[in-house]
Amino acid sequence: MDYFKFVSSDTPVGYTKVQRAVSAALYSITIPVALTGNILLIFIVTRRPKTRTLTGFLFVNMAAADLLVTLVDMPSAMAVPFTSIQWPPGIMGDITCKAVYFGFFVAITASILSLTLMSVDRFLGVVYPLRRFPRFRNARLLSFIIWLSSMIFMIPVAILWKVTDEFKPGKFQCFASFGNLLGDYKNDITFLYTYLFFLKYLIPLCLITVLYDLVSRTLWRHNVPGDRLVSSDFDSKRRQGRKKIVRTLVVVTAAFAICWLPAQSYYLILAFNFELHDRLPRFVMFVCNWCGHSNSAVNPWLYIQQTLIPSNTLPILFTCPNRKVPDITQGAAGACNQT
């Protein structure tokens, strides 16, 4: 099982000229789209008062994590078909190696946790509309918990990744040194990629699916908790607003499931059928990883497309700096008025 044969030379084997051109084109498009979208999303939430809800805050948290993926991991992934990245030896090499890969996995986990907590927030807000849950809706505390939990969950990555010249003397490279976690090469591989599959994909996706199913059942039935306490007009607007938010979050969740499915499927190949990984072209793994990275570019634009473009409020954010932009459940705003 020559796991590192594609990183043990100065020029990685297994990539044709066409594949290298395609890989460069994919990331040349993905990186600027991700940077622009996530920066714009953060700008929108800070400029638009009515998006400063817990859901909006979690979108910003996800955008920050996606920016970290864009700036740290995408450039190194883009370089894989062209060159084997050399790392400095010694303590400095180990620190930077662990920091880069640990930061990448932490950012992805934080993004997924943010998406999961959005579903919890919508569930509590729709199914229990008369309860406030102040501790859960403490945005700063929630952000701290998201990032701290992500770091704790990714401790195995910090243990496994290191710099070594074991596979090419004098050429120090950063990769997972399997055998350092459970004491056995094969067991480490199986554990790590099974762990990542369940933690970063299957468990969050199942939880989100169950919660949104309960939310949808509540929203689309006639007797929603708290309905009889408000006027019919207000309740209708509130219900439509909630439905629109839920649709947006369902679309974002579907994008997450689709984009990360190839990479997560490859995790299972690494965990349970390593010989298949040896036989597959390296470009297959590259494309699977790119599909996952593309989710960082898709997320912000989905939010913008689902919430701002239909209400025609995006231009107001740039042309009316002091205008209080209406909520997504309202129509387009008129001329700029100072408030």
Automatic annotation (TrEMBL):
Pfam families in UniProt: 7tm_1
Q: How is the protein disposed in the membrane?
A: Multi-pass membrane protein
Q: Where in the cell is it found?
A: Membrane
Q: Which InterPro entries match?
A: GPCR_Rhodpsn, GPCR_Rhodpsn_7TM
> Where is the G-protein coupled receptors family 1 profile domain positioned along the sequence?
37-303
The residue ranges crossing the membrane are 24-45, 57-79, 99-120, 141-161, 192-212, 245-263
Per the annotation, which location comes first and is thus the protein's main one?
membrane
User: Does the keyword section mention Transmembrane?
Assistant: yes
**Descriptive protein name:** G-protein coupled receptors family 1 profile domain-containing protein
